[in-house]
L-threonine 3-dehydrogenase (Actinoalloteichus hoggarensis), 329 residues
Amino acid sequence: MRAAIIDEPGKLRVGEAPDPTPGAADVVIKVGACGICGTDLHIADGEFPPAPFPLVPGHEFAGEVVEIGSDVRTGIAVGDRVAVDPSLFCGYCTPCRTGRGNLCANWGATGDTVNGAFAEYVAVPAVNAYRLPDSLSMGQGALVEPLSCAVHGLDVFGAQIGERILVVGAGTMGLLLTQLLAGSGARVSVVDRNAARLPLATTFGAEHVATSVAELDAAPFDASVDVTGAPKAIEDAFDALRRGGRLQIFGVAADTARISLSPFRIYNDEIRIVGSMAVLDSFEPALRLLESGRVSSEGLISHTLPLEEFPEAVGMVRAGTGVKIQIAP
Ligand SMILES: [Zn+2]
Ligand SMILES: [Zn+2]
């Protein structure tokens, strides 16, 4: 089959890879759509330590079931359209056994630690496949994973009615978080250096939008979420908090990145800082939100490119082109 392959950090190509064969509990999916995410860029740059090389990336995907392992008992059938939770939790470490599988000591994910869906076919555990309603396209199916990360972010972060919340970054994740926060009754302000992204943030419920925190007169905020992973943006998000505020670090930074925050302020103002890592029991809720229309995908999928153009598509993501760029193998 054809697949996008990262041979080593910085070396990316589209070439031939062996067809996946399903393990006893797996299904093989013919990929319909797979989104490119900031994490894929970190993997390509060697900044995401769990990723081995060579690797076929791709963890935001939907497709059609074409083969079923001998021991699959989920009632899934060949021909089913599914979205796939990429999470691979071991099930026996302490985090897994205390309800925090996303922090699994042996954490893995399809497309991050084993071959993923920037390919014609991918094998996944059958229990990770969720049937896609007829009303949702493959492209929308590939948005369930990023939305499920945003749902987990809210699970961790909480949002109170009427709170003033700053979202830094208006890419796909920032726009999904904006919808969830506004839908939860928070008053959302959104900042992105790329002004072209701001009208969508307004459409999705942001009250104030700007290209920098300094331009917003809504500060200080009760809470802020950084969706960029950029150290300067995280520091701005921290500085914009009121006393007693909280900061969520949602965006993926390079593993070597460092930030500079005032420990006195964290102490004296009782600032809480909390992370949010991937998906935890949030895939089904995300699927329901998209199916019901409570979260809109209108305008989010800006480009759909063929697999052979994967390197160009990655270049577009790096350049900040559009919103969500997907590959349709
Ligand atoms: Zn992702
Ligand atoms: Zn585990």
Q: What stands out?
A: The first helix runs from residue 38 to 44. The radius of gyration is 19 Å. The domain at 2-143+300-327 is CATH 3.90.180.10 (Quinone Oxidoreductase; Chain A, domain 1).
